[in-house]
């Protein structure tokens, strides 16, 4: 009798795992092939060879680019090289990237930058906030940008028990930001189990020196985050649910969900077009190709534009799509005066004149 019960439980367990694996393959678009949509005036950016995971463009046209991310389960073409922040001036006729020097006193050897966000204070001083994963932990680093010297001065490292598996941030003021947690577990195998079982334990965190709290939860994998031009709404990507959550920001920093925009592709980082208010989403059309990297069949890239996000029927269009022959693993797209930058988790970056 005992053996029969054990076999029954084993069979039920295997059936559950099989069903969850099939569901995961569907959620990761394992069978999807992307149809190409490629603007004519595009070229790869020389000097960005090992990723350009996140991009933030100042109103002046200076673009900050995080590069060299080492992320569990993702390919990495330069595992022994530390991460860097690059700068690109989009006002130039033929803009080029330049690696920013980081001040002494900061552990540059373990720098592993992920999501980034900028903040300009009343004195027009520019601060760059960067999610960092030194030794696979999660911190937020605050830098002051020295424009004349083209350098970053490290000011502070922020750590907190709720700042775990941090993916992206959006800065709201001096040492005030929202951050996304993309996985509950930090162990890679437990992360896989979390994905298979769809535990939905990830969240959005608000941080300030006086208060740190979870302001929204229940995401499968909270990823990119940004803010609307009027500062009233927060947009959050749930990469495994293939959607964007539109959240209303309250005076106490709490967030309430207004709507969810389904996209049918795995959404990574989000930015907002400063001229139109449209959301730009860097997406992964087929995440299995990303996780099981094959040079003969590489992961593709996809950039979507979402217009009128607050309306009943937002308009969704494809700005860029490629099967991986040019750009692999797109994670972000950002625009400035008719120029489009597309970054990737581990690959190159693309510059387009629209």
Q: Could you name the key traits of this structure?
A:
mainly beta; 25 strands; single chain; 5-stranded mixed β-sheet; 12% helix; 4-stranded antiparallel β-sheet; 3 helices; 354 residues; globular
Structural description of this entry:
- Strands 6-10-9-8-7 form a five-stranded mixed beta sheet, with no helix packed on it. A four-stranded antiparallel beta sheet has the order 1-25-24-23, with no helix packed on it.
- The chain contains three helices and 25 strands.
- The protein is mainly beta and 354 residues long.
- The protein is globular and about 50 Å long.
- Strand 17 and strand 18 form a beta hairpin.
Cα(first) to Cα(last) distance is 70 Å
Fraction in beta strands: 35-45%
Helix content: 10-25%
Net shape: globular
Task: Report the total helices.
Answer: 3
**Mean pLDDT rating:** 93
Strand order, largest beta sheet: 6-10-9-8-7
> Which class do the helix and strand fractions yield?
mainly beta
For the largest beta-sheet, the strand count, sense and barrel status come to: 5 strands, mixed
What's the assembly state of these chains?
A: single chain
Secondary-structure element series: HEEEEEEEEEEEEHEEEEEEEEHEEEEE
Q: Say how many strands there are.
A: 25
Instruction: Please state the CA-atom Rg, rounded to the nearest Å.
Output: 20 Å
């Amino acid at each position: 009798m005992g053996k029969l019960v054990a076999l029954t439980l084993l069979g039920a367990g295997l059936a559950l795992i099989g069903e969850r694996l099939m569901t995961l393959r569907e959620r990761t678009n394992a069978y999807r092939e992307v149809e190409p949509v490629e603007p004519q005036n595009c070229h790869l950016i020389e000097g960005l060879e090992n990723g350009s995971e996140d991009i933030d463009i100042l109103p002046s046209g200076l673009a900050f680019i995080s590069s060299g991310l080492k992320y569990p389960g993702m390919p990495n073409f330069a595992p022994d090289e530390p991460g860097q922040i690059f700068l690109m001036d989009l006002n130039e006729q033929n803009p080029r990237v330049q690696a920013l020097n980081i001040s002494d006193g900061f552990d540059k050897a373990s720098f592993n930058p992920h999501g980034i966000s900028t903040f300009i204070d009343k004195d027009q001083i520019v601060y760059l906030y960067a999610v960092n994963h030194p030794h696979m932990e999660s911190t937020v680093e605050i830098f002051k940008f020295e424009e004349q010297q083209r350098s970053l001065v490290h000011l502070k490292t922020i750590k907190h028990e709720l700042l775990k598996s941090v993916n992206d941030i959006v800065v709201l003021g001096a040492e005030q930001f929202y951050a996304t947690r993309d996985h509950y577990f930090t162990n890679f195998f437990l992360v896989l189990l979390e994905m298979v079982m769809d535990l939905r334990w990830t969240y959005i965190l608000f941080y300030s020196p006086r208060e740190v709290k979870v302001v929204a939860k229940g995401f499968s994998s909270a990823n990119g985050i940004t803010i609307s031009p009027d500062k009233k709404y927060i947009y959050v990507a749930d990469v495994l649910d293939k959607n964007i959550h539109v959240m209303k920001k309250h005076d106490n920093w709490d967030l309430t969900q207004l709507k969810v925009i389904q996209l049918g592709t795995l959404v990574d980082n989000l930015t907002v077009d400063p001229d139109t208010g449209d959301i730009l989403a860097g997406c992964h059309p087929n995440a299995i190709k990303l996780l099981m990297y094959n040079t003969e069949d590489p992961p593709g890239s996809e950039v979507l534009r979402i217009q009128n996000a607050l309306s009943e029927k937002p308009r969704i269009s494809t700005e860029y799509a490629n099967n991986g022959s040019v750009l692999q693993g797109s994670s972000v797209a950002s625009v400035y005066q008719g120029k489009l930058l597309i970054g990737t988790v581990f690959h190159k970056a693309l510059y387009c004149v629209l």
